[in-house]
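Researcher: Structure for this, please.
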Amino acid sequence: MNEIDIQKLFQEANDAVPRLSFEEASNIILEKNTLIIDVREINEIKATGLINNAVNIPKSTIDTYFNRSLIDNHINDKEETFILVYCAAGIRSALVGHKLQKEGYKKVFNLGGYAEWIEKQK
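Model: Predicted structure, token format:
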């Protein structure tokens, strides 16, 4: 895949998966049934940690071994659960969010990057 194809793929994912502000995401987390997914790799998690109540499902796992149980084991209702995805900078989370939409998950949102989230929590 060349650079133009990668940029097109990312743009498509970014257009499809709404990116939430910290305030919007915080309200959803407080008021709705949510699943927060960190798609960073294990070494990144070990270095920085997770957002509270997030589960780690690396993008590499989703790309290579995706099956519905990766997500469904963490939610009660596919139609009603808000799925909030983040990574280091928001690129991988947009791509994973778009894949989840294609798999039939409806309420999928991009939280962006871990560092950005932690900074806003202060």
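Researcher: Any notable elements?
Model: DSSP finds seven helices and four strands in the chain. The helical segments are 3-16, 22-31, 42-48, 59-65, 69-72, 91-102, 114-121.
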